[in-house]
Design a protein that fits this description.
Layout: H1 9-20, H2 24-37, E1 42-48, E2 54-59, H3 66-71, H4 99-105, E3 108-114, E4 121-127, E5 130-137, E6 142-148, H5 155-158, H6 164-181, E7 186-191, E8 194-199, H7 205-213, H8 215-218, E9 221-223, E10 232-239, E11 244-245, E12 251-255, E13 258-260, H9 263-272, E14 282-283, E15 285-291, E16 296-297, E17 308-309, H10 312-337, E18 358-359, E19 390-391, E20 396-397, E21 419-424, E22 428-433, E23 436-441, H11 442-461, E24 465-475, H12 478-486, H13 488-493, E25 497-500, E26 505-512, H14 520-532, H15 545-555, H16 565-576, E27 591-595, H17 596-602
Parallel strand pairs: 1-7, 12-15
Antiparallel strand pairs: 1-2, 2-6, 3-4, 3-6, 4-5, 7-8, 9-10, 10-15, 11-14, 12-13, 16-17, 18-21, 19-20, 21-22, 22-23, 23-27, 24-26, 25-26
Helix pairs in contact: 1-4, 2-6, 6-7, 9-10, 11-15, 11-16
């Protein structure tokens, strides 16, 4: 007796529907994508009971005639592709011809459509995959799809649906993605006959984000710097350094208008924000990639959430570089933000008679420590001032800071860009600028200065390597071994003396001097994981950056370390000259601004 049998057509349709229709949000996604492909300028979505009871999608697109409407309910019937070669250059959101027949096979389905110049439209009613009614319809031009009783004939799938509120939130999230990816289209979403949001068509992405998320978030976003290669165009908005979330919920990526999820792009975004975010935090991104449809394969996932790139390394490099340069470009805006009212006298003094909480930087306290110089510790644990020229930034100091009193030659080395008020709790520098009050964490600021200075020195002079007394050998899986063989030169630049020692076996005879390694195999696995996601233009000290950050943390000025006025001024100036002045190497902010409007609101002067 034969064991292999052909499935009945209705069963095969329901099995296939399981790959496309996962939940109500999947239905809305497929229908809205069809509306976008049809050239709709306005899309209305109505749901009831989380979409389980009813989902209705109405658009004003091109519509269909009766023959096309009937054919659209046949599996693998589509207007998007004609041949295998078309799969290599897909420019539409839909293309497989599976969505409508899959949805109709697991629901009570109604389709009405009409072309703009047609006298009458077409109405088709389908129950569980069987066409019941085909007749003329009198709906407005466009297409209307109504899906009722989802999974009514597949109880095994229906019982796995979540609560109605959860399904509603998933649908709303999908509509947010489509609305952000296509700002030129108006969207209306009604839930249980109540309008949840109504978005007019906009000309720019910023207007759409303002409508969805508010002006407060928009003000914390910066526009990406643009394209970096003729093969890929990058645009959109990303969060400023320090703006982060605990999840990737607001890390949105679009490729040729399609919302996708890509580990490669996630790693590239993280690389672009390197040292600008705290560990465990994720940036806010609205990232748009436009590239030749032939350079991206969207036919790799049933729900079309994932894509593959023909040149993944080029895409990763372009994204990481674009974000890095955008954040660096913001440095000028950052400096301008902290420019002050007209400069104060050469050596301003602060009268703290009525402000006992604020502490004047005392002239008798020590200089800022100059890392990586080893400080000489004198009596009482204070650091002696270096008497030789030192460089903490772009400005050279040819002599120790002079005392303010009785020294006519003590002049500011640079025109003041801010007005220093004092120091709060021997930690937070209080400054005034044109926008209001600025607070600077002196420890975080000095960490950033020393981190960039030490990394720059070691990049210029090379990474010091320490020979091992006993060489270590280890084996790796074939893929990791192949990666090491292809990147031996990069590893050697990082101070790692490594060479092949047989099939999938390697020998290490030297390591960077600032690393403390006991297990060579475990160390190399970490090297591979870190560098696989790193940019080709990354610092050769990538592995040592954590160690550098920890070192400068020990040497930077601490809380309760009182500083003199000139030292505070020099600290702020050096911070503003850093590549990433916004945060310390651990991702914590170095400066925060409290605007005049916020202060007036706190004091009840403004509502």
């Amino acid at each position: 007796m034969s064991r292999i049998r052909l499935l009945p057509e209705i069963v095969a349709s329901q099995v296939a529907a399981g790959e496309v229709v996962e939940r109500p949000a999947s239905v809305v996604k497929e229908l809205v994508e069809n509306s976008i492909d049809a050239g709709a300028g306005k899309i209305d979505v109505l749901i009831r009971r989380g979409g389980i009871s009813l989902m209705r999608v109405i658009d004003d697109g091109c519509g269909m005639d009766r023959d096309d409407a009937l054919l659209s309910l046949e599996r693998h019937a589509t207007s998007k592709i004609r041949s295998v070669s078309d799969l290599e250059a897909i420019s539409t959101l839909g293309f497989r011809g599976e969505a409508l027949p899959s949805i109709a096979s697991v629901s009570r389905f109604r389709l009405t459509t009409r072309e703009p110049d047609a006298v009458a439209g077409t109405e088709i009613v389908v129950n569980g995959g069987k066409i019941d009614i085909v007749r003329d319809g009198g709906e407005a031009p466009g297409t209307q799809v109504e899906v009722r009783s989802l999974f009514y004939n597949v109880p095994a799938r229906r019982k796995f649906l979540r609560a109605e509120n959860t399904e509603s939130r998933n649908i709303e999230h999908q509509l947010h993605l489509q609305a952000i990816g296509h700002a030129q289209i108006a969207f209306t979403f009604a839930r249980d006959d109540r309008v949840a949001f109504q978005l007019p068509a906009t000309a720019t992405l910023t207007d759409r984000i303002r409508d969805l998320y508010g002006n407060e978030l928009l003000q914390q976003l910066v526009a990406l710097n643009g394209s970096h290669s003729p093969q890929i165009r990058i645009s959109g908005l990303v969060g400023q350094a320090g703006l982060s979330r605990q999840t990737r919920a607001q890390q949105l990526v679009f490729v040729n208008g399609r919302a996708i999820e890509s580990p490669l792009i996630t790693a590239a975004v993280r690389e672009g924000y390197h040292t600008a975010l705290m560990k465990g935090q994720y940036p806010v991104t609205f990232l748009f990639l436009e590239l030749d449809p032939g350079g991206v394969d969207v036919n790799v996932h049933p729900a079309k959430r994932e894509v593959r790139f023909r040149d993944p390394n080029g895409v990763r490099e372009a994204i990481a570089r674009c974000i890095q340069e955008t954040l660096a470009r913001g440095r000028a805006d950052w400096q301008e933000k902290f420019r002050a009212p007209p400069a104060a006298p050469t050596q301003p003094t602060v009268d703290l008679t009525l402000r006992p909480q604020v502490i004047v930087p005392e002239e008798s306290h020590r200089e800022l420590p100059q890392f990586p110089m080893t400080p000489d510790v004198g009596r009482g644990g204070s650091l002696n001032r270096p008497q030789t020229p030192v460089r903490l930034g772009p400005i050279e100091v040819d002599r120790p800071y002079q005392e303010a009193q009785g020294d006519e030659e003590a002049k500011p080395y640079k025109q003041q860009q801010f007005q220093i008020i004092g120091v709060l709790n021997k930690l937070y520098v209080l400054m005034e600028n044109a926008d209001g009050l600025v607070l600077v964490d002196q420890h975080a600021a000095h960490e950033r200065i020393l981190f960039e200075e030490l990394r720059r020195r070691m990049e210029e002079q090379g990474v010091p390597a320490q020979k091992l007394l006993i060489t270590q050998t280890f084996e790796l899986p074939p893929r990791d071994a192949d990666w090491i063989e292809q990147n031996l030169s990069i590893l050697q630049k990082m101070g790692i003396g490594i060479e092949s020692f047989g099939p999938n076996t390697f020998k290490i005879d030297s390591l960077p001097g600032f690393l403390n390694v006991t297990d060579g195999a475990q160390f190399m696995r970490k090297v591979i994981d870190d560098l696989k996601s790193a940019s080709e233009r990354s610092s050769p000290l990538r592995l040592g950056e954590d160690m550098i950050a920890k070192s400068v943390c020990r040497h930077a000025v601490k809380a309760n370390d009182p500083l003199r006025y000139l030292e505070v001024e020099k600290l702020i100036q050096d911070l503003l000259e850093c590549d990433l002045p916004y945060c310390c190497p651990h991702g914590r902010p170095t400066m925060i601004q409290i605007s005049n409007a916020e202060l007036e609101k706190k004091f009840g002067r403004k509502v």
